[in-house]
Amino acid sequence: MSLMARPKEQAARRQELVAAAGRAIVERGVRGLRVKDVAAQAGISAGLVSYYYPDLGDLLVDVHEHSVDRFYWSRMRQVEGVPDSPGRLRALAGGGLPSGPDDELCLMLYELHLHAARDRTHAALMTSLFDREVSLYVMVLQQGEAAGELVLAAPALDVATNAVALEDAYGLHIVARNTRVDPRRARVLLLSYLAQATGADLGSGDELASSARTTPRDAQG
């Protein structure tokens, strides 16, 4: 029995270290990250961290993969059950931006995405998230067009790509504490673009602000 349980225990320990490394990245950034920082967050010795992750780079890859999955599936859950295409677009616009400058998951992703400039594995993960988010928008846009709820001013792929790029750009300003771009302002501007690109009535800025996620992503597993 103990031999059968060991792989599960190792997997659980790795998950704990991924979570601890994520917290350490939020606190210190990727460049300043050390094994002892992860150990402190996990409440274990640095030697035990190195036992599971002899190469800190491998741990960073696992953190990035986990963060990408969390972010994407949180967005997918937000559109599930929404009955109409304008409503799904509002949900997407409300869920693709940081909730504020202290949004831990978004902070992790921006830190790790910046790491992509020097590492092809991280670049591939960044590209994967972008492609998955674009595909989610494309799905909503094409469904809305087929249902006669949306009239697209450009191909669905172009509208979706612009929407995700705007989210990423505004999100960077939000986490960087640019006082000219707060979450509500960014959502209003993103919604304005989507309304023009789809011909849909997507509601007022106040309505959009109220449609933002109710459960912060940094609190999800």
Automatic annotation (TrEMBL):
Origin: domain of life: Bacteria
Location of region: Disordered: 202-221
Alphabetical keyword list: DNA-binding
DNA-binding residue intervals: 34-53
PROSITE patterns in the cross-refs: HTH_TETR_2
Keyword Aminoacyl-tRNA synthetase part of the UniProt annotation: no
GO molecular function, one term: DNA-binding transcription factor activity
Family matches, as InterPro entries: Homeodomain-like_sf, HTH-type_TetR-like_transc_reg, HTH_TetR, Tet_transcr_reg_TetR-rel_C_sf
Transmembrane stretches, start-end: none
Ranges where the HTH tetR-type domain occurs: 11-71
Pfam family for this entry, one: TetR_N
Cited PANTHER family: HTH-TYPE TRANSCRIPTIONAL REGULATOR RUTR, TRANSCRIPTIONAL REGULATORY PROTEIN (PROBABLY DEOR-FAMILY)-RELATED
Official protein name in the record: TetR/AcrR family transcriptional regulator
Source species of the chain: Nocardioides guangzhouensis
Lineage: Bacteria, Bacillati, Actinomycetota, Actinomycetes, Propionibacteriales
